[in-house]
Amino acid sequence: MLWYIRTMYLGIQSRRQKEHQRRFYWAMMYEYADVNMLRLLETFLESAPQLVLQLCIMIQKNRAETLPCKGSCFAPYLE
User: What is the pLDDT of residues 9-60, one digit of tens each?
Assistant: First the structure.
């Protein structure tokens, strides 16, 4: 949450202070990139345990069940 507030602060400062506009703008862009990387890492860490569990179950059963792939997005290519 603090990252978002800091990014917003730097964005506002880049609009207000014309003499330091470029410096605040680039600081805001770096903060925004950091926030996006943290969001990506958080998403990965949330989904990784489920993937590991699914792989363990597949290995223990010693088989990989495949599903027929005929969805609406692939239908034009399959006909």
Answer: 777 877 777 777 777 778 878 888 888 888 889 888 888 888 888 888 888 8
DSSP class of 73:
T
Q: Can you tell me the distance from the alpha carbon of 43 to that of 35, in angstroms, rounded to the nearest whole number?
A: 12
DSSP, collapsed to helix, strand or coil, labels residue 76 as: helix
The candidate with the shortest Cα–Cα distance to 38, out of 7, 79, 72, is: 7
Helix (H) or strand (E) holding 21: helix 21-61
**CB neighbour list of residue 34: distance below 8 Å, 6 or more residues apart:** 3
Beta-carbon contacts of 31 under 8 Å, excluding residues fewer than 6 positions away, are: 3, 6, 7, 10
Kindly calculate the radius of gyration of the chain based on its CA atoms and give it in whole angstroms.
23
